[in-house]
# Entry
Amino acid sequence: MDWMKKISTDRMLVGLVSLIAVGMSFIYLGKGPADPEQSVQTKSALTAPANPSTKIGVLEKELESKLQTNILMMEGVGRVQVSVNFLTGLKNEYVRNNNVTKRTNKETDKVGGTRETTEITENNQVVMPSGSSQPVIAMEDRPEIGGVLVIAEGARDPKVREGIHTAVQTLLNIPSARITVVPMGGTS
# Structure
């Protein structure tokens, strides 16, 4: 009978820990970022599928096209297909209107004692042009490249494959491990 109490106590403990973990995850997931601009960026990064109708999709297609054009000009490459994947979304820094107001009050009571209080008010608002719902962007960073896949007819030749790999690494300034070059299959 003692072992049954131990099993039921262990089950209750596991259930309680599981319930706490689920509750904590709801609390954590329910909280949004403190910075509203960060919230907008996170949502756009999460909901931006890699298709040409989004800014990220357009950037990916432009980069793929640029790489493909350059690789096609290399000797021995043949037909080429390039795919680019971004790790992050666009990063925007917005223009802000920073105002600091400082007000000091001196009060003297009937007995002759004085009291001085200082009130500081800071205002750090994002600048919105009149009639627009979009804030003014001070800087826009391109997303970080997660990986590049190059499929080329000439990649069976190790010299061509290495040349493509080096060209992509040089053009994008990314680590070698994020680039894969493979031979094109199928019929010519």
Summary: The chain is about 40% helix and 30% strand. Residues 47-90+142-188 form a domain with the GMP Synthetase; Chain A, domain 3 fold (CATH 3.30.300.30). Residues 31-53 have pLDDT under 50 and may be disordered.
